[in-house]
Structures are given as structure tokens and as C-alpha cells.
Amino acid sequence: MATIYELDNEQAYEAEVSQCVGVTGYHHWFFLSALAEVFKLQFRAFAVDAGGERLGVVPLLFRRRGFVSSANLHPIGCIGPVIRGDALRAGRVTELLRGVEPVLWRHRVVAVRWAFSPGLNVSTEHLATSGYEVSEWENCVVSSTKSVDDCLKSMSTGRRQSIRQTEARGVFVEDSSTEEIIRWFPEQISRMYERQDLLPLYRLAEIRALAEGFATHPRMLWRTAKTADGNVLGMTGSVIGDERLWGWQIVGPPARGISAQTLLHWDSIKWALARELTYDLGGVPNEGIRVVKVSLGAEIETAVGAVRFRPRAAYKAGTALYGWGMNRLVNWQHGRA
Asked: Which domains does the chain show, CATH number per domain?
């Protein structure tokens, strides 16, 4: 029988998460609580014990829809359960998930999604036999084990030329100012969706609120690409994790003969490697983005997700919620290209 304990403050939550594997930058309390506030979700987190051992932590973002709810049916990457190393090696992931079932019942959850950290060795077979619809997707990383020279050599010839040409035109990268983060960044996110004719992941008011909340947080890295005369060409916002730099958003309008986004990726790679961090570029929702990220020298790893709808009568409603969330996830990953 599992025992669950609610983690209702940042200190207790971070202390428990720090003992787990599969923790992304997006698992941190500041990020989850900001998402909950902006998107009108309820954020709760639970530690799960079974057989006298702590198994891990399950963060939950609930969205109420009338008399029912969904849990973690949102487009923000891999912020599902995190597990202690011993429990993962013993194959106790599904036991961890069963531990929070009473919470899901109390919230009348008809659709739940678990998304595990890229590279985490989760048994898809065990998840499938537990009633989940399991999927895998590709994620792109530049490993911390590489040197800067090795990373440059692993890029395509075109990417290396793009970096040299952009720098030759006087473009440089520096820390973003608070004003750039709050004013320039949200507008460019909104325009990016308009240019690409995508369903917006963030409405302008929402991304402004997140930018304001994240602008000075110590776990956020904001970097801006500028021309020699100070005009802003692009910006990236990343979450600094314990083992990875997680590229959250990268934006900037098209500019002839200049690739600010390539230069920003290169800047993030160098920043991460200097601190012995892996640089995480995110997923590959289509082949075009896969080609771009691989051309930057990124390697492919696999991430696992699982979704479940119940009861059967709620299947259509759950499917609609899931489809909505997945459409926004694709748009989000597209924006990170």
C-alpha cells in the first residue's frame, strides 16, 4: 500500500525533487507555479512512499472542465513524475503512478498525461500493461562531454559558415536587459505564431506575464543577439537545470544574410559547456526541425510519454482535451527550433 504526502511549499518540494532522477529545468517550483498562475491551473505535488521506501515525486497541474478535470494535459515538455534512482532501477515507475491514483479520483480526472525526462530508462511495456497509451518522441541535445571544438566540428558546413558570416557582420550576443525581456521578447513570440500561422501556445498577455515573472529569476538565462549598433535581432530564454541548460524559447524576425538564431544556439552551447552542462534543444515535431537541430551538432535521444482516459464515457471529451494539448505542444516545440 502506497502512502502519499503533499509537498505544499517550495522548500519541501525542491528538497524531495533533488533526490530524484529525470528532473528537468521545468520541474522547479518557480516554473510550475508560474504556469499555474498564468494558465489558471491548480498546481499540487506529492511524494509517494511504498514498502517503506520513498519512490519519487509527482507534480500535477490540474485543469477543471465543468465537473471533471485533466491532469498534466499541457504542452510544456517533460514535467511528469520524477523517481528515485533505486526505484527506477527496480522498475517501480508504475507503482509510483499508482500511488497518486487517490488524488486523481478526488479531482475527478478523466485524462492524465505523464511525460518523462528525455533519456530516462522507463519501461514502455509496463506502462502499456497498466492501461496507458504509450508514445515515444525524439529530443535533441549537445552533450556536456563534448569540447567546444568538437561541437563546432560536429556542425554541418552550412551552420559553421552561418556563424562566421553572422559574426563577420558585427552581430554579437550578450545578457538580455530586463526591458528587452519584458517588452521585446513577448512581442516576438506573438509575431512568430502569426508568421508561421500556428495556434498560439501563449497569448500575448500570458507570455508577458511569464516574461515579467522570469526576467530576473536566478535559474533563467536570457541572452540577446544584437547588431553592432545595438539593434536586437533575436533572444533566447533558457532554464538552468542541475545537469542541463534547457532551451525554453528562441525568437527573432528573419533577417537577410544573418542567422541570429544559429548564433544564439551556438552561444547557448558554449555557455552550457563552460559550466559542464548539456544543452537541451528540445523535440523534433517535424523532419525540417530535426534537420536543423542535427545540423547544429545535436544528438538524438528518446523521451517517453503515456496518456490515459477514463471512464470510457469520457473518452471523447478526453480525446478532445488531449488533441488540444498536443497541438499546442507541437507549436511549442516548433517555436524552439
From this structure: 2-137+304-335 (3.40.630.30), 141-300 (3.40.630.30)
